[in-house]
Design brief:
The complex is a heterodimer of chains A (about 375) and B (about 260).
Chain A lengths: L20 H9 L3 H28 L7 H6 L7 H11 L8 H17 L7 H19 L16 H26 L4 H15 L3 H11 L12 H26 L3 H9 L4 H16 L1 H14 L11 H9 L8 H30 L5
Helix pairs in contact in A: 4-14, 5-6, 7-8, 7-10, 7-13, 8-10, 9-10, 10-12, 10-13, 11-12, 13-15, 14-15
Chain B lengths: L2 H10 L4 E12 L2 E12 L3 E5 L6 H8 L7 E6 L2 E2 L4 H10 E4 L11 H11 L5 H14 L15 H13 L5 E5 L7 H16 L3 E5 L3 H7 L2 E6 L2 E6 L1 H6 L4 H11 L1
Parallel strand pairs in B: 3-8, 3-9, 6-7, 7-8
Antiparallel strand pairs in B: 1-2, 1-4, 4-5, 9-10
Helix pairs in contact in B: 4-5, 4-6, 5-6, 6-7
The chains are: A mainly alpha (about 375), B alpha/beta (about 260).
Bound molecules: adenosine-5'-diphosphate and magnesium ion.
Magnesium ion binds next to α2 of chain B.
C-alpha cells in the first residue's frame, strides 16, 4: 500500500451558478425532467381556466352594498348579503338595541386572547384578569345588574354562542383530558378501569348522539321542575366528548417519556403529583402540541353541530338569513363568509401552536 | 496525603453501619434476580461492585432507594427500615443520591433549574437559596459556566457531572452510582471519575457499580463481585485484584483485564 499524507488542505468553493438563483430554482423545482415539466404545464393551464373567471365573479362583477333585488339582476357575487344581515348573522335573536353588549363581550374576549398569546404574560395576574373578564362577559350577555336589561339565554346566538361553546369547551376539556390520561395509566385498578371505560365509550359514539342525549334523554332523569339550561347541557356534552380525545392524545405523549425521567424524579424524592407537574407533563404536553391543536381545531368546528338541538350558532343564523325570500339564492356568498370566519379562527390556533412549539424547543439550533 | 493513609483514617470513622441488608431476595415475575444478599456498609465506606452484565448489580443498588421493591429480607438505611410506608420511602430518597448510566437529566429545564428543583420542592428551601446551593455544587464539578444551558447542549461527560451535582444538592448521606461512565466516550471518562474521587475525599458513603478497575483500586475500601444474583466475593482492592479466591472471580477478572 502506498502511504498518503495530505500536502495542501482543500479550499472552500462557491456552488456552481446553475444551481442557485431564480433560474436554478425554476429548473430544479418546475422543470426537472419531462414528468415534472408536464405537470407544471397542466397546472398552469388549469389556473388559467379557473382563476380569471373567479376573480371576475368575486371582485369585478360583484355587488357589495346593494339590495337583494339589485343582486338578482347581476352576474357577479352578491356580497351585499353580508353587510345587510351582519347583525343577525353575528348575534342571532339577541335584542337588536342591546347588541352592543355581545359585541363588547367579544371584543373583551379577543383582547384577552391576544394578550395571552405572549408567554411572558403568563402570570398569576393574567389568571385574575381572565376570571374578571369572564365575569364581565357573562354580565354583559345576561344583564340583570347595573341597569342592563336581562336577556334570556334562549335568545343568545350567532358568534358569541359559537365562541362560548368552543372556548369553554376547549379550556375545560384539556385539563379533564389530562386527568383521564393520567387515570388510564394509574396503578390503581379501579381508577384505571373507570378511565378506560369512559374514554372508549365516548370515543365509540358520534358527538351528535351525545348532543341529542344531553337535550332529550338527560332531562328525563332530572326531578320534576328542575331544568338545566340547554346551552349548558350542550356545553357539557362538548366538554365530555373532547376530553376523551384529548386524553388519548396526552397518553401518547406520556408514553414517549422514558422511565429514566420517572426514576430521576423518584430518586430526588419528588412525590407523584410533583413528578407529574414538574417533570412529566411539561415534556409530554410539549410533544403533543401538534395533535392537541388538531383535536382542538376539530372540536371547534364540531360546535356547529349544536344546530341539531336548535341552538343558533353562527352557521345556523346564516342559514336563517338564506331562508329570507329577499336574499334567496346567495348561499355561496354567505357560506364563503362563514367559512372565512371558521378559517380565521382555526388559522390563528394552528399558527399559535407553531409559535409555541418553537418557543418551547430546547434542542440545539 | 496519599491514598493509603486517606483510606486508613476513614476506616476508623466507620464504626457505625449506614446500610444493612439482611438475606434480601427479589424476583421479577418468576425470575429470581437477587438470591439472598447480606451486606453491611459502614459510614464513610466506599464500595465498588463489579460483575457480569445481568448479574443483578443495578437491581441491588436500586433496591437501596426503593426504585425496586424487594420481596424478602430486610434493608435498613440510616436506621430506617424500607417498607411500603410512603413517608419512609420519601425520607430515604432525600438521603440517598443516585447517578444513572444515562444521566437522566430533565431536558426541558436549564442546568440550574435541574439542580434547584429538588431543594425547592422537596426540601422547601426558598428559590434564591436553592440556586445558591445549585451554583455551589456546579462549581464543585467545575461546570458553573454552563448553568443557563439546557442538558441537550452539553457533552456526555458534562451531563454526567451535572447529574452528580444534582444529587449533591439534596445533601445526601449516601451516593449510589450505576455505571456512571459506561455510556461515555473514552475521552470523557476521566472528568467524571475525577468528580467522584473528589467526593470520596470528602468522606461520602458511596456504592459504585463500575468496571473501571484503576478507579476501584484508588478509591474503594472494598470491591464486591456479583454473579447470578449473589455476592460471590468481597475484599480489599489489593487482595481482590492480586489474589482472587473464587473461580468465577478469577474468570471474570481475566476477561476484563486481558
Ligand atoms: N424491570 C425488570 N423486569 C424484568 N426483568 C428485569 C427488570 N430489570 C432487570 N431485569 C432483569 O434482571 C436481571 C438483572 O438486571 P440488572 O440488575 O440490571 O443487571 P446488571 O446491572 O448487573 O447488568 C437481568 O437479567 C435483567 O434482564
Ligand atoms: Mg446495570
Amino acid at each position: 500500500m502506498e502511504a498518503y499524507v495530505q500536502k495542501k488542505s482543500a479550499e472552500e468553493l462557491k456552488p456552481p451558478l446553475t444551481s442557485v438563483g431564480v433560474i436554478g430554482w425554476v429548473r430544479s423545482n418546475l422543470f426537472k425532467g419531462w414528468f415534472s415539466s408536464l405537470l407544471t404545464l397542466i397546472i398552469v393551464y388549469c389556473l388559467w381556466v379557473i382563476v380569471p373567471p373567479l376573480i371576475r365573479w368575486a371582485f369585478i362583477d360583484s355587488l357589495w352594498l346593494s339590495t337583494g333585488a339589485e343582486c338578482q339582476q347581476s352576474d357577479g357575487a352578491c356580497w351585499s348579503i353580508i353587510p345587510a344581515n351582519i347583525r343577525f348573522i353575528a348575534f342571532g335573536f339577541y335584542p337588536y338595541d342591546e347588541q352592543w353588549r355581545p359585541f363588547a363581550a367579544m371584543a373583551l374576549l379577543v383582547a384577552l386572547l391576544f394578550y395571552s398569546r405572549n408567554r411572558n404574560h403568563w402570570k398569576k395576574s393574567l389568571a385574575y384578569a381572565w376570571i374578571l373578564g369572564l365575569f364581565l362577559m357573562g354580565l354583559l350577555m345576561k344583564g340583570g345588574l347595573f341597569g342592563l336589561i336581562p336577556v334570556e339565554t334562549t335568545q343568545w346566538g350567532g358568534l358569541p354562542l359559537t365562541l362560548t361553546l368552543s372556548i369553554f369547551g376547549l379550556t375545560a376539556a384539556y385539563p379533564l383530558g389530562i386527568a383521564f390520561a393520567l387515570g388510564r395509566r394509574s396503578k390503581m385498578p379501579t381508577i384505571k378501569m373507570l378511565c378506560i371505560v369512559y374514554i372508549e365509550l365516548i370515543r365509540g359514539v358520534p358527538l351528535i348522539s351525545l348532543l341529542f342525549m344531553s337535550s332529550v334523554v338527560f332531562p328525563l332523569f332530572l326531578p320534576e321542575g328542575v331544568t338545566i339550561n340547554k346551552i349548558i347541557r350542550a356545553q357539557v356534552a362538548i366538554i365530555l366528548f373532547t376530553a376523551a380525545y384529548i386524553a388519548e392524545v396526552v397518553r401518547g405523549g406520556l408514553q414517549a417519556i422514558s422511565r429514566g425521567q420517572y426514576e430521576a424524579a423518584d430518586s430526588i424524592g419528588l412525590s407523584y403529583y410533583l413528578t407529574m407537574r414538574l417533570i412529566i407533563l411539561p415534556q409530554a404536553l410539549k410533544i403533543v402540541i401538534p395533535p392537541s391543536v388538531q383535536q382542538l381545531i376539530s372540536a371547534f368546528k364540531d360546535t356547529s353541530l349544536v344546530v341539531i338541538i336548535a341552538l343558533f350558532d353562527v352557521l345556523r343564523t346564516t342559514q336563517t338569513v338564506l331562508s329570507d325570500p329577499k336574499w334567496m339564492g346567495f348561499s355561496a356568498e354567505a357560506y364563503i363568509f362563514v367559512a372565512l370566519i371558521y378559517f380565521l379562527c382555526c388559522f390563528f390556533m394552528a399558527n399559535y401552536s407553531r409559535k409555541l412549539e418553537k418557543e418551547l424547543s430546547t434542542e440545539e439550533h | 496525603m496519599n491514598e493509603e493513609t486517606a483510606k486508613s483514617t476513614d476506616m476508623q470513622a466507620m464504626a457505625e453501619s449506614m446500610i444493612e441488608i439482611i438475606d434480601m431476595h427479589k424476583w421479577f415475575g418468576d425470575f429470581h434476580v437477587l438470591r439472598g444478599i447480606d451486606l453491611t456498609i459502614h459510614k464513610k465506606e466506599r464500595i465498588v461492585i463489579c460483575g457480569p452484565s445481568g448479574s443483578g448489580k443495578s437491581t441491588l443498588i436500586r433496591c437501596i432507594n426503593r426504585l425496586e421493591e424487594h420481596q424478602r429480607g430486610k434493608i435498613i438505611v440510616d436506621g430506617i427500615e424500607l417498607t411500603n410506608d410512603l413517608k419512609n420511602i420519601e425520607k430515604i430518597r432525600t438521603e440517598v443520591g443516585m447517578v444513572f448510566q444515562h444521566f437522566n437529566l430533565f431536558p426541558h429545564l436549564t442546568i440550574i433549574d435541574n439542580l434547584a428543583l429538588g431543594p425547592i420542592w422537596v426540601r422547601k428551601i426558598p428559590k434564591k437559596e436553592a440556586e445558591e446551593i445549585a451554583m455551589h455544587n456546579l462549581e464543585k464539578v467545575q461546570i458553573a459556566e454552563q448553568a443557563q444551558k439546557y442538558p441537550g447542549q452539553l457533552s456526555g461527560g458534562q451531563q454526567q457531572r451535572v447529574a452528580i451535582a444534582r444529587s449533591l444538592c439534596m445533601s445526601p448521606k449516601i451516593m449510589l452510582f450505576d455505571e456512571p461512565t459506561s455510556a461515555l466516550d473514552p475521552e470523557m471518562i476521566k472528568e467524571v471519575l475525577d468528580a467522584i474521587i473528589e467526593l470520596a475525599q470528602e468522606g461520602m458513603t458511596m456504592i459504585v457499580v463500575s468496571h473501571e478497575m484503576g478507579f476501584a483500586k484508588s478509591v474503594a475500601h472494598r470491591v464486591l463481585f456479583m454473579d447470578f444474583g449473589q455476592i460471590v466475593e468481597g475484599n480489599t482492592p489489593e487482595e481482590f485484584f492480586e489474589n482472587p479466591q473464587h473461580e468465577r472471580t478469577k474468570l471474570f477478572l481475566s476477561q476484563i483485564l486481558h
